[in-house]
Amino acid sequence: MGKRITIDPVTRIEGHLKIEIEIENGKVKDAWSSGTMARGFEALLLGRDPRDASYVTSRFCGVCFSVHQMASARALDAAFGAKVPWGGTLLRNLVMGAEYIYDHMVHFYHLSALDYLDIMAIAKYTGKDPELNKVRDKIVSLIQRGDTFPLTPRYEPDEFCVKDPDVVISAVKHYLDALQMQIKAKNMGVIFGGRAPHYQSIVVGGVTMFPDINQVARFHSMLDELATFVNEVYIPDVISFGMGPLLPLARAGLGGGHQNYLCCGAFEMDEVGSKLLFQPGVIVGLNPVEIKIKPFNPQKITESVHSSWYKKESKPKHPYDGTQVFDLERKDAYTFVKAPRYNNLPMEVGPLARAFVDKDATLLGLVKDYGVKSGVVARHAARAIETKKIVDAMYYWCDELTAAMVKPGFKIHDTEHWDPPAEGEGTGFFEPPRGCLGHWIRIKDKKIANYQAIVPSTWNASPRDERGIRGQYEESLIGVPVPDPENPINVVRVIRSFDPCLACAIHLIDPKTNGVRKFLVE
Amino acid sequence: MSEIFKGVTRRDFLKYCTAVAATLGISELFTFEKIVHALETASKKPPVIWLEGQDCAGCTISLISIADPTPASLILDKISIRYHETIMVAAGHQAEKAREETIKDGGYVLIVEGSIPAADDRYCMVAGKSFRATVKETAEKAAVIIAAGACSSFGGIPKATPSKGIPVKELLPGKTVINLSTCPVHMDHLVGTIVYFLVAKKAPPLDKLRRPLIYFSQTVHENCRRRGHFDADEYLTNWNDPAQREWCLLQKGCKGPDTYADCTIRRWNNGINSCIDCGAPCQGCAEPGFYGEMSPLYAEGPVTEKIRAKKAAGLIPRKEDA
Questions:
Q1: How far is A262 from chain B (nearest CA, A)?
Q2: B298 located within any domain
Q3: Cβ partners under 8 Å of residue A407, min gap 6
Q4: B189 is in which domain, residue-wise?
Q5: Does A183 contact B272 at a Cβ distance shorter than 8 Å?
Q6: Residue A505 neighbours by CB distance under 10 Å
Q7: What are the boundaries of each domain within chain A?
Q8: Is residue A505 a contact partner of residue A458, using CB atoms and an 8 Å limit?
């Protein structure tokens, strides 16, 4: 039996996550990923007007805000028989594109980068750059005053932490610049989204925001500024770190895990939806030299509650049939996160999955030229690479929008299908920054009869299933070096590389029974 | 100038104070010089503990969406964030230790995001502790407690779920709690309230729901640009129709006449847009009934009936009479 350690809370992620690991001979031998907060959104939605769903589910998460609004609206579109006009689709795509840019930058600079930097090395900067000296003076003044929160305390920097003062100070400067750019990205999205976090404009049938040409011009101008930052700062930072000081981590494939990938496809590139920015597909057991893509079939998705605090079921169920009831007494369970499986297999979803399924030339170039393997560094690289893809697509959507707006009869909403149908069901898939997202709705008597969502972090953070197969976070930790149990910095590096979002991952409860067990508290 | 603002030019500093005054909307309450003086003479950065319970981190993201003062100046220059799960570098035991040590010293600003599950403590456990215990323990020596967002102010969305989220005030009946109740918290409301407390050393004047009057004394309707169309019974039914673009959103489920918040004058995200301005109805997110009592969100419902009855009784003044 190795040494067991617990990291709770895992910080700089969204939500409440506990990671337990067993260490033997300086390496992780086993791992348990545990989501420790639940609200229970579905009970709330049952019996409501179906149109409420897009607004309410947006509140699953305020970091990847409104991705659920989007998936939910798509499920409602399907259930209502609504056909979103091209103008509505373009506006939805543009606000979601803005969300991507903000989210990916925040993840890299503000949630992850400090795991790779010895920030105190800044004090040793002796260069002449006036901007960098301002950053140095700022950090030095914090140290002098003995108040370096929230930058400390921290895990001790290890051999993979960059200590070169010139590099560290540039990175911290970019951390501060990115803090400004993420505001810009949200402000841009708000032009058509209404406010952020939690956009207001996406509803069943399209959007509520009828744009004018000045707003498009303003959006375009802000996009220019963000594109410059993405292309000249964010991508070069990720690539120079990943292929420079972190190359040994990249080549070792730290945090690779199962190497099964799933992408459900997203972002229409034409009016009929025949072309998507992200292609759907599934990869089982990645071979980067010869990637085999299988078609994505939503019918193959099931969810297991084998290791989760819900009432036990005889077998995993398809989301339409899911009937989960909290059971906090189960001793064999350790998390509120359920275990989604595709064809009985755990999957990784997110930027790396999208890149492999797309056979992205830039990422495969890093694999070929630098020997990068699937894992932590590849995940950060895939995220940066796809940010450019999104930015380029956003220029195209802006052009398409302007062209559509000047034509007579420009539409943003399908008003014919605004009222809820008596009966119906619909599925809405989307690819938010963190990966494959599906919402399922069933309508009866014009009200919500059942509602289910399987979200990206549920895929990635899932626990063991009936067959004892670990989820992707857990599997990714196996073999990760932890030379000092007091300083498990590699563990948080692996977990943060997925960009966890636990509030999203846990939202379920069975509405029919309202079956929460009562307990005496305190 | 005190050491706190070392490296900041006088010009930068005065610019910051102007932004603070504007954010607060308190020029009549405090002279500009007084704000400058109070911030200059602060001997050390005030410690802040930010707890997340049954939340979505949306209020955190809202905080870092404010353009002036910048998030960097807030985090590095103005306040000392001792504990914040989403922001802090520390994890696990280190993080908890930082919180415990700050509690020992007392005198910190406590900000709570998210509700506390009343149905069972196990619906929200952090560091092996119930969120209920953590809030109680952390509130003990707090100088002020700010409930950021609908969930911690009134229970918000979790209130109507089986986990039964309750607000901070319900857990701490004897404590001074300031409710900033929109969903998510408005970035200006939060930053303004923090600065107000640092300057005045007390909570701003509150309404009976413990919300600062400077932000919550008028209805969304009173300052709505669509108000004239409400008076004229012109209601938007089709978002595609250019003729209806500025019409009232009541038939789309707007709760503006029954909701107290300054969204229609302040707007959101540095003044760029707002719910009403993007053609979406106000959903009453600042009110205690949110979300349960606001449903249906996009159709006429019980709230609409109440608004129509008030209108018929002449209780909602016409724009021209206001």
A1: 25
A2: yes
A3: none
A4: 3-216
A5: no
A6: 33
A7: 27-108+172-478+496-505
A8: yes
